[in-house]
Amino acid sequence: MDYKQELITTIHDLGCDLTRLEERLTELSRTSPTAVLIPSLFEELERPALANIRDHLKQCPFVNMIVICLYADTKEQYTEAVQFFASLPQPTLVLWENGPRVTQILKVLQERGLDILRYRGKGRAVWMGLGVASLGASAIVLHDADITTYDRSYPLKLLFPVLEKEFGIAFSKAYYARLGNHPRSLNGRVKRLFVAPLIMALMEIFGYKDYLRYLNAYRYPLSGEFALTSDLALTTRIPGNWGLEVGLLAEVYRNVALKRIAQVDLGVFEHKHQPLGASANKGLQKMCRDILQSVLRTLTETEQVVVTIDHIRALRIKFRRGAQNLTRQYFVDARFNDLVYDRHKEEITLECFEQVILQAGEQYLEDPTGTQIPDWTRALAVMPDLREQLQNAVFSDMEEATQEDSLSQTPLPPTSPISTLIPSQN
Predict the structure, then answer these.
(1) Which domains are seen in the chain, by residue range?
(2) 227 has which bridge partners?
């Protein structure tokens, strides 16, 4: 049995009673409402994973509100998405993040000196979703739309530590085993073959810096599933690139005491795979590039580490040796568990990742600035009612989509605050 604790609190699943947790969390959510935030491309609606997620969320009485941050190319796609989520019993807001109403609001913000429109992808979706969700929720859980193994225990396990006041947790992060089914195999290449040996190599070069020890404490630092308090959501800068998960951990490191951070075991987990990519600007190689640059930047910011080209060259050498050692260990673990494991293919993958180190390091030395979206406190200083404007845009978009598609549900009133849609906090 694994009881190991880290710098942050590790919450194992030692046969926890999910029924007991659900009853308690449902009780807590009556006075401290919760929200589930899902950033999604329209294409996810056409895959089975999101339908399964929707159906499991129907059975979550501890979830008071759901926010979908949708990237859709057309009004017809947005309307289809509103209909797709219409069966959810919880108040559900489908935020059309690139729609005309939301874009116009962000243009006004841009004219006032804060440009959010220049950011693209998941980072901007997460940023907007956190702002809207924080209007009515005390705790927010975020996860992707492509999880094929999803069940109601995921949001339950992530939210519980944040809402249970005696725990004192402000941020909970998922960890799990990434296992494929067809065939049974080890997945999670970037974590296993890049991040793990990268952190070990950085420790050998720069010493056991607090930030590196903190990163090393996470069993799956790249998991896209986490829960946090609304206060933390408003004071956290969201990375605007593929280093979102590691960059977010850096923000948590700056803003939250270690005793208020936890990681939670979600069991066996799987979602769709990204391609390796033909260069450092594509696929998983691009992800590795952004991750490395984020880690180097945070080392300089928090640990006063001065990174040179000699450090990058040494990092590449040490990384390769550490990664090769890990492939041998993964091979033993996989073979013991009767998992398919292609050691040669693993070596090819880590060699690609190794090439990224030099390119990413040189880019970082030329331009060490990051691509983080300013936190919500700054945005609210520029436009104090920004969250309410986005909320009203969502209501107007949904009402219009509902009327056009002749849905049977009563449309959400465009001026109703979120607080009227969730259980009373009194």
Answers:
(1) 9-413 (3.90.550.10)
(2) 141, 172
